[in-house]
TrEMBL record:
Transmembrane segments: none annotated. Residues 5-227 form the ABC transporter domain. Gene3D superfamilies: P-loop containing nucleotide triphosphate hydrolases (3.40.50.300). One of its GO terms (molecular function) is ATP hydrolysis activity. InterPro entries: AAA+_ATPase (IPR003593), ABC_transporter-like_ATP-bd (IPR003439), ABC_transpr_LolD-like (IPR015854), MacB-like_ATP-bd (IPR017911), P-loop_NTPase (IPR027417). GO terms for cellular component: plasma membrane. It comes from the Bacteria. Keywords: ATP-binding, Nucleotide-binding, Transport. CDD domains: ABC_MJ0796_LolCDE_FtsE. This is ABC transporter ATP-binding protein. It comes from Mangrovihabitans endophyticus.
Amino acid sequence: MTALLSAAGVAKHYGRTPALTGVDIDVAEGEIVAVTGPSGCGKSTLLHCLAGILRADAGTVTYRDQDLGLWSEKSRSRLRRTDFGVLFQFGQLVPELTAAENVALPLLLAGSGRREARADAQQWLERFGVDHVAEARPGAMSGGQQQRCAVARAMVTQPRVLFADEPTGALDALAGEQVLGELVRAARDQDTAVVLVTHDARVAAYADREVALRDGANDPSGLGVGS
Ligand SMILES: Nc1ncnc2c1ncn2[C@@H]1O[C@H](COP(=O)(O)OP(=O)(O)OP(=O)(O)O)[C@@H](O)[C@H]1O
């Protein structure tokens, strides 16, 4: 297997606090990988390193055979607009923009025309069953509707890798499973790889494979939440 994205020996400290002490992970094209482990084991930090949001202190993060540690902040930021999608627990939609404007935003930032971006946004809102709130602002939407819009916004650029950090953690069990099911289906349809951070075995069960962390390193027992 040739990895699309991989980390080798990645370490990261926050001041004196070690968050990662040497993690290895490979993600293949179109593969859905759950990163699991107890609170504070370094899952989010690993996701931020893989997405190029944080630079690792040691080790390498490689995307399409390129060492992201050698890239400038600006180039990594561009990569997040073109090849990566990012989705957090609380959708983090822009409160001043409507749902449609939020979903169109990544396309506009990537250089699409206004009309085309708007049409694509509408399609993705329909796909996630929230086209009826296209003109609403996040404050007037339910938590589930907001998170569906956030998924649409993360997928609208058809990223090669989607980074999702507890993407359904703020939703009740039923809404969470629905959103997750739709997200996974959309990712499979367009061969988007997903790095899915979760502490929940039901969420990890949607992945092809699980990489378990413990105390900032790969869990030596190899047992994850799905085991
Ligand atoms: N910005 C920060 N400044 C200082 N320490 C941090 C920061 N972010 C995380 N940490 C510390 O780094 C370690 C790993 O945190 P991280 O958020 O990556 O873990 P996690 O597995 O995602 O946790 P959770 O499941 O609770 O979100 C923890 O000890 C945490 O307290």
